[in-house]
Fold this sequence. Notes:
- The chain is mainly beta.
- It has one helix at residues 3-14, and strands at 22-31, 38-47, 53-59, 63-74, 77-82, 87-89, 93-97, 103-109, 118-125, 129-136, 167-168.
- The longest helix is centred in the N-terminal third of the chain and has 12 residues, at 3-14.
- The termini are far apart.
- The relative contact order is 0.24.
- Mean pLDDT is 81; it is low at 145-168.
- Bound molecules: copper (II) ion.
- Copper (II) ion (CU) binds next to strand 8.
Amino acid sequence: MTRFAFVAAAAALFALPAAADITINDAYARVASPMAQSGAAFMGIQNSGAEDDRLVAARSDVAQRVELHTHIADGDVMRMVEVEEGFEVPAGDTHMLERGGHHVMFMGLNRKLAHGDEVAVTLVFENAGEMDVVIPVDLERNDVTGEMGGMKMEHDHGNMGGDGDMKMDHGHKH
Ligand SMILES: [Cu+2]
């Protein structure tokens, strides 16, 4: 490869900040109600590269704070906590952000979100760098197994009668 060709190739890569290794699949955002003060986004993050990567941050002007969250079980209460270290996206794998699990959290929405709206989000990866995505608000989406279907939790107390048994301490669910 000539030097010129090399430079041209590098320039082409530079023009694609998404670093072709990372692909965002099937992203959607939701709010619990039209009056919600917060919302969340879910997606599959596919890493087709040879090296592990990590989603370390997300930014959006749709909310005052954007955090990477997960849910943890605290008794019968699902608690959302920030994941400071972000989400690992292993090489050759897809890491799912899904209901009841990892998600991008919009805290303090700057505008109301309705079905069909779009939210511009910048995802920041440790290796792939910044990636801009436009995420549709989808309030009709239900996970196959229902509202709590994304949770991969062990329930050994056997008293999960229904959604009412589980509460979010933030006063919203998604
Ligand atoms: Cu959250």
